[in-house]
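During the practical work, I selected for study one protein's amino acid sequence and its backbone structure tokens, as given directly below:
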Amino acid sequence: MLQNGVTDQDAKIAGEAHEAGKAVIIVVNKWDMLEKETGTWEQYKKEVYDRLKYLSYAPMIFVSAKTGQRIHKLFDQINYVAKQNAMRVSTSILNQVINEAIAIVQPPTDKGKRLKIYYGTQASTKPPTFVIFVNQKELFHFSYERYLINQMRKEFGLEGTPVRIIVREKKEKDNSY
């Protein structure tokens, strides 16, 4: 593929951007210098995402700074991703998506106890951060978190931006006086 592909330094910088909650676009430069065959684009894209697994949500664009190839598309992509990063989702729509997700895949159980998700709300943007209220935090497995994030991405887009979930316990009301 391209001479260097994704370098260790590229991966380090990308990881820092991801951890900081920044919107990300993967830009592959010098695309004009590569001898292309059928499937080159797909193969290179797969190799980049394999190396940067944590950025699977980031769009990728192939450009040439030297020839200007696709540079104009980069600015459209920047604006699009910035909007995704600043997206607000209403609580009612968010809870609709969460309830549909729960209906498709039930929350996990552990030692006979089932995770109950009461509701969710968006706490902030840049990156979109959602607070999910549950019966017991320790029942909220990271795989179910990933599932919910994927459902949110499917419904809202959120392309190019990390999505954060904060899990909080909501105690059932104690009615004893």
